[in-house]
């Protein structure tokens, strides 16, 4: 095949995979095939899918190495690649990333290349990505499930790398459903934690903390980090918060943090530090486009972190690698 066509086939196929797989996940098709090889009649049974259309999708996914059709038995098998589409984590990831309402916004991604201070949601809906999410409860839930997945991905390494030293009261600002605070509370049973979140996320965090039996040790406080950070804490965690926003808004958040800390207290920023020589570079650039399109956010280099920190009354103390993330330790001056 000519190179130009080969590249196009690959890219178009990926696009179609992104549109088809979530439907098969929702209809339980993937789980069925992964559970044990099945005929297409067995696969379609109990779904609302059309049999012959489903067959075409299965053949397309077979050509893309997710399934294998065994002609002698009429059975569909899942390949190793097919197995990656099964299970709760796969469901969380695929149903969030390829939700058709989200894709409806993403179709305009190219438009963003014409400016640096626009994001998809602002451009189309006139509000930030988080504001749009807050108005659609099932999408907010899908998003928080995705964030909980990301937290789980490297929580052991992050918790290991976070040294809370003599800090006794720690607040996880924008702490989502509470995953990090819960894991840290288990590591440090003598310390008190709080999750600071917007009103709509508070019940999710409270439920989660209750499920882990940690209500005495971890509280949930409602509010906006653009307005203020609650006082009375000697360490502030910001996980996947700074990368969500453009520089001037990160400075507002960090200055609000600085306002409630004493000199010498710390902020721990958990985000990736972009480095072109790092093996995580490809993911960092993908994530960069993602946060740019959602909230005009940015993945930052070490120098860019230094700049926003010094503008906000902090100095960078250390950077520790924590698998998918880095922990950027900053000290209030
Ligand atoms: C990318 S998520 C990170 C969540 C969590 N820290 C984690 O790593 O899983 C960003 C979080 O910031 C919260 N957030 C957005 N705007 C906020 C605001 N103005 N004040 C407080 N939290 C906010 C969102 O609700 C969301 O949970």
TrEMBL record:
The lineage of its organism: Eukaryota, Sar, Alveolata, Ciliophora, Postciliodesmatophora. The active site is at residue 243. InterPro entries: COMT-like, COMT_C, SAM-dependent_MTases_sf, WH-like_DNA-bd_sf, WH_DNA-bd_sf. PROSITE patterns: SAM_OMT_II (PS51683). The keyword Iron does not apply. It comes from the Eukaryota. One of its GO terms (biological process) is methylation. This is O-methyltransferase C-terminal domain-containing protein. The keyword Transcription does not apply. GO terms for molecular function: O-methyltransferase activity. Keywords: Methyltransferase, S-adenosyl-L-methionine, Transferase. Residues 116-315 form the O-methyltransferase C-terminal domain.
């Amino acid at each position: 095949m000519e190179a130009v066509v080969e590249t196009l086939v690959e890219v178009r196929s990926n696009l179609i995979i992104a549109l088809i797989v979530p439907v098969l996940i929702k209809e339980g098709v993937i789980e069925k095939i992964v559970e044990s090889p099945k005929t297409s009649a067995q696969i379609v049974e109990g779904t609302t899918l059309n049999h012959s259309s489903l067959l075409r999708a299965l053949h397309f996914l077979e050509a893309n190495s997710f399934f294998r059709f065994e002609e002698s038995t009429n059975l569909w098998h899942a390949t190793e690649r097919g197995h990656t589409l099964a299970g709760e984590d796969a469901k969380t990831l695929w149903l969030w990333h390829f939700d058709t309402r989200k894709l409806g916004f993403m179709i305009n991604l190219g438009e963003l290349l014409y400016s640096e201070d626009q994001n998809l949601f602002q451009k189309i809906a006139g509000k930030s990505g988080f504001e749009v999410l807050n108005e659609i409860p099932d999408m907010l839930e899908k998003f928080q499930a995705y964030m909980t997945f990301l937290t789980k991905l490297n929580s052991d390494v992050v918790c290991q790398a976070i040294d809370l030293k003599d800090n006794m009261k720690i607040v996880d600002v924008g702490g989502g459903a509470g995953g990090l605070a819960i894991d840290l509370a288990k590591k440090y049973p003598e310390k008190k934690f709080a999750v600071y979140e917007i009103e709509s996320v508070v019940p999710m965090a409270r439920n989660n903390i209750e499920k882990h039996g940690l209500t005495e040790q971890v509280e949930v406080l409602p509010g906006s980090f653009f307005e203020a950070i609650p006082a009375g804490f000697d360490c502030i965690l910001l996980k996947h918060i700074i990368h969500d926003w453009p520089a001037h808004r990160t400075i507002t958040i960090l200055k609000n943090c600085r306002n409630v800390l004493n000199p010498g207290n710390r902020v721990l920023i958990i985000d990736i530090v972009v480095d072109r020589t790092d093996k995580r570079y490809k993911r960092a650039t993908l994530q960069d486009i993602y946060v740019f399109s959602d909230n005009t956010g940015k993945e930052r280099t070490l120098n860019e972190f230094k700049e926003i920190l010094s503008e906000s009354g902090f100095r960078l103390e250390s950077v520790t690698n924590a698998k998918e993330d880095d922990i950027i330790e900053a000290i209030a001056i």
